[in-house]
């Protein structure tokens, strides 16, 4: 049993039972039976079931969003977007069961075709920062490709994922096909890795745990998709719309209180516009509305937990090079004011993922220096490039080692475009048109045509 705490009030919301290994083994057995029936069902039937699930999510957006506000401290506008995004992901991939086409390949002596066979039982291990959306990026395309799915939400934020499990049943998905198993990483997550009937793990979380998941999966040559940490750069060139770059920069890093793997947490500014950028950036940071996540005008809520608040605080010790800070409520709640640091290039606030509302700003000299700085990290998830020069935008987009870049904006995630990381930010891609294929094995079958 674990108590869940509202991070904006520090009040206990409710308790949740944590499952043990036996319960995981029972769930895998039920999932294996359900998967065989699901894969055998007509593609149109599977498509229809996913559309019904999407409709059920759509009619519970308010309830799901309110749960996320209370459990995770997400601001209400974001939480509603997240629930709507789950619906959209379901709708998008409801087209897949009828479109997993395979190939017919010209060969001598017969006909050669490929089948996209489901893997079987797939497990999704989710983090606490975007509980619903990140779980959906794994479980929806996996279901669409004919698999059964087990999801383990993070210990501290299971409520919306558990509700999605109930909605799936209410929408008519077969018993056992999609199960949400709250529990500890060291118990439920580890059992997913060691259980021989779990054929793939989709893991989103820290690079440290991701490495352990990958090492454990190697023992069974188990498939993995890994979505890990980030330390993304927001590169501001002197030829950009500086007003717009400065006005939007806070939202590129402080959204979800900086608890975003795509947070542009290193702002790199060309030296000849650095002072002007900082002049424009200061009021933008101070203007971020931090407070009650249930209030419509709020732009940033609290950090998710007390231990996480302590971790983030450690990056802003006494004497830290604070350029300026926004404001945050006092009193109960894990509040942290948006904070801008101007440290040395080697400081740990520049090199480590903070996962909170703390951003560093560094000057750079020229394009080559900007690229070198942007790539001077083991991570490669996201990033932004601000320039009005199209050739420069193209050159820098190619040179930055990162899976998701945006030019003159801070956009990272759309359900219809691929998402994932270079280097230690991950392995494989989620979302986009190909995601269901990542939950299949390609089987090649040759049919010999005999002589008459
Ligand atoms: P975490 O690694 O601590 O936990 C993630 C999940 O793994 C949780 O469900 C946890 O219970 C489980 N887990 C822990 N130990 C395990 C083990 N030994 N075996 C199996 N599972 C285990 O990460 P977190 O603190 O919940 O999330 C924050 C991290 O996630 C950040 O580093 C962030 O960058 C990353 N993240 C990445 C993406 C992405 O798409 N690349 C998205 C969101 C978050």
UniProtKB/TrEMBL annotation:
Residues 3-445 form the Aldehyde dehydrogenase domain. The keyword Oxidoreductase applies. InterPro entries: Ald_DH/histidinol_DH, Ald_DH_C, Ald_DH_CS_CYS, Ald_DH_CS_GLU, Ald_DH_N, Aldehyde_DH_dom. Signal peptide: none annotated. Keywords: Oxidoreductase. CDD domains: ALDH. The active site is at 227. Belongs to the aldehyde dehydrogenase family. This is Aldehyde dehydrogenase family protein.
